[in-house]
Design goal:
Largest sheet of chain A: 4 strands, antiparallel
Number of helices of chain A: 2
Distance between the termini of chain A: 47 Å
Low-confidence stretches of chain B: none
Order of helices and strands of chain A: HEEEEEHEE
Mean pLDDT of chain B: 88
Strand content of chain B: under 5%
Number of strands of chain B: 0
Distance between the termini of chain B: 8 Å
Low-confidence stretches of chain A: none
Helix content of chain A: 25-40%
Structural class of chain A: alpha+beta
CATH class of chain B: Mainly Alpha
CATH topology of chain B: Arp2/3 complex 21 kDa subunit ARPC3
Number of domains of chain B: 1
CATH architecture of chain B: Orthogonal Bundle
Strand content of chain A: 35-45%
Oligomer: heterodimer
Helix content of chain B: over 70%
Radius of gyration of chain A: 19 Å
Number of helices of chain B: 6
Shape of chain A: elongated
Number of strands of chain A: 7
Shape of chain B: globular
Largest sheet of chain B: none
Chain lengths: 105, 163
Amino acid sequence: MKKGDYIIIAVAIASVILSGILAFSLFGSAATSVTVSQNNKVVYSGNINTDNEITLGTNTIVINSGAVYMKDATCKNQICVNHKKISKKGESITCLPNKVLVEVE
Amino acid sequence: MAKKITFYALFCSACLICGYIESLFSLSFIAPGIKLGLSNAVALLLVAKRDFKGALLVNVARILISALLFSNLFSLCFSLPAGIISLVFSYLLYKTDKVSLIGISIAGGVIHNICQSVTAYLLLGAGVLYYLPFLILAGLISGAFIGTISLLTFKRIEKHLKF
């Protein structure tokens, strides 16, 4: 193994990571449905393209033009409220203190 | 000259045997079309001997014949450009004297798979780019493997490769 070999390996690994990021950002395909559950029970399920506002008492979830976000929550940490909008298959927002799970599929 | 042709023919048939062995087991569960590329270990021996023309000749002949024998002419669109481009890159890298056979094999493997992805992109659309990271990684791993085989073989048979 010469010095150049390590450079080649480094470049190759970098291109794996780069193309991985590229592929991941290109192909997280748009979700079609939204499921909201609280305490492991499904409390809402519907189309992601139907705009809606779901009020659970503790949390308010907004579905707006194909994306879902947590508008309000009574929890202390507000992680779910600060979470970015989700719109791609497999993404989710969790509000652990209130045991609310929002999934898009 | 006659000795040269005989050697090239020998290399070419060694490539084809490697290709045949590979066609017996499939690695396609990783990503479609993934192969070890054993025959490149043979072509690398010619690069190691700094016989670029010979390497190119053997590689092109090998690709054409193996397409006829083991697959179809459509696969040529994938294998021929990728084979030639990666070989050119490998040779240019080797000429710099800063890389060993393992390094050029990795570079060749990665470039080969990138070329194939580009071909697939042109023929089949953007969806195939999803496999690009897996293909580059596969090129890296198989390249390291093939390069090691080639380096070990070259050390042992170097003195017999006189043509």
